[in-house]
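Structure catalogue
Derive tokens from sequence
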Amino acid sequence: ANKAAEKILGGEHFRVYIVIPLHPEGAPEDAATQVMLKWQKKTIEAMYETVAIAITRSGRTDILPTDIIGVYCLGARDPNGPPDLMEATWNSLPKRQRIMINSR
């Protein structure tokens, strides 16, 4: 968020993509999982606030924090769904257009 704020104040275009798992590790009802989700939420809120302050200081009225920061969740494909369409679409893309994200 600080890097994005610097770019905004410098008049540069900048975009942040945050990728988080759709389902956290561990049982959702466990205290440790709840604490992790709480701090994950607080971190994202703080990032939006930092970017919002930078936008205000820059005097720009044409952008919002959501234009700068995008939060995306990765999830597994439905095993009961039709894989043929997804596979056909994936295989028809040139290799340079494919985007794969690995974590860990």
